[in-house]
Amino acid sequence: MLLDLARHEEEVRVQIADLIQDSLRKRRPLPDLEETRARVAMAVDVRTEPPTLAAWLKEWIDGKPDLAAGTRASYAGHIRKYLAPHLGMIRLDRLQARHVEAMFAAIEEANTRILECRESEDPRVRVLVRGQQVIGLSSKHRISATLRSALSDAVRSPEAAVSVNVASHARLPSCPRKRPLVWTPGRVAQWKKDGTIPGEVMVWTPEQTRTFLEHARRYVWLHPLFHLIALKGLRRGEAVGLPWADTRLTDAEADIRTQVVQLSWETFTSTPKSEAGQRTITLDADTVKVLRGWKKFQNQARLKAGPEWADSGLVFTRQDGSGWHPSHVSDWFAHIARAAGLPPITLHGLRHGAASMALAAGTDVKVVSAELGHSTTHFTQDTYQSVFLDVAKTAAEATAALLRGAAAPAGSGGVVPVR
């Protein structure tokens, strides 16, 4: 039907209707599609039927060849697991915010079912949800962000026939940033008593970190890696992927230009995804000493292995010279922490701790932010600054001293506790 050409354009529909009536009145054959487009100048304005969301999402992600591999995998996972199954059959121009909200309601219903099955006393029920993951609020926000990005491009595309990004109007509870909590003596005592972990992101005190590193010395192939993360706050992939070519011990510097990214179990090497992530860190004297000793040990192992040595060129390697798998590093970290009798944190918790120690030591937040690879100092201060017990006590005494009119305790200047 010629009128189908202008299904979404009232003005063009009228033009085509007039053209059809004129042909009928003059007893002429109806014009074909191309002639109709030419006669009413519809080459750009006329749209075919808008695609379904599933079709648009495929076109959208296929049209982004420059996406980082990790970002592409994340987008593809959101599309395959959630967006396409729940919303994919809806035509793009008919998608509404209520549809998006219904998707998240269905995800939450699935979460409830998974939790109920896990708590069942019947093993046949528990096995039904084996391997299924509860989708948390932060994951929901990432799914929503993928849809918003796709629909933003749809709004700019004349073929999509949409003018509003409905994902921006879908209601979803806010997801506050998870701020780290320190394992204070009271929290450790409660954990030992009943296993309570008071927060999702936990950080060791400097003393606990020192205990861990001392215990990690028994694991000669891992201690230098954990030392660098604990002191400089590298991300796991940055530490695992650090090459000797970018590490200058004479200058006490290391260039962070590569990282090992893990997708499911597969890994690949890429650059940090943000410009701020590509940075140069400064190494302290103790870390330089640790890395010099490690390099000597690694060279001796390479000579002993001979042709069996895998020349990866990486700073941190396994006994055969090959690079570490990121998950293996995390597993060893948890193993060493348990063996040392320490309260649990994740490997990423060492990064939180490094930032916290630097800020507590009075390091300028701009320096800490640059060393961590953050784009803004606000993010660093708001997310990574934790209050160690001794720092908080010093600040409290300084405040009380001011109220008494006494001199503030030495070393208290400039320390601002953050809740």
From TrEMBL:
It comes from the Bacteria. The keyword Cell division does not apply. Pfam families: Phage_integrase. InterPro entries: CB (IPR044068), DNA_brk_join_enz (IPR011010), Integrase-like_cat_sf (IPR013762), Integrase_catalytic (IPR002104), Integrase_recombinase_N (IPR010998), Tyrosine_recombinase_XerCD (IPR050090). Residues 199-397 form the Tyr recombinase domain. Keywords: DNA recombination, DNA-binding. The keyword DNA-binding applies. Residues 51-155 form the Core-binding (CB) domain. PANTHER family: INTA PROTEIN (PTHR30349:SF91), PHAGE INTEGRASE-RELATED (PTHR30349). This is Site-specific integrase. It comes from Nocardiopsis tropica.
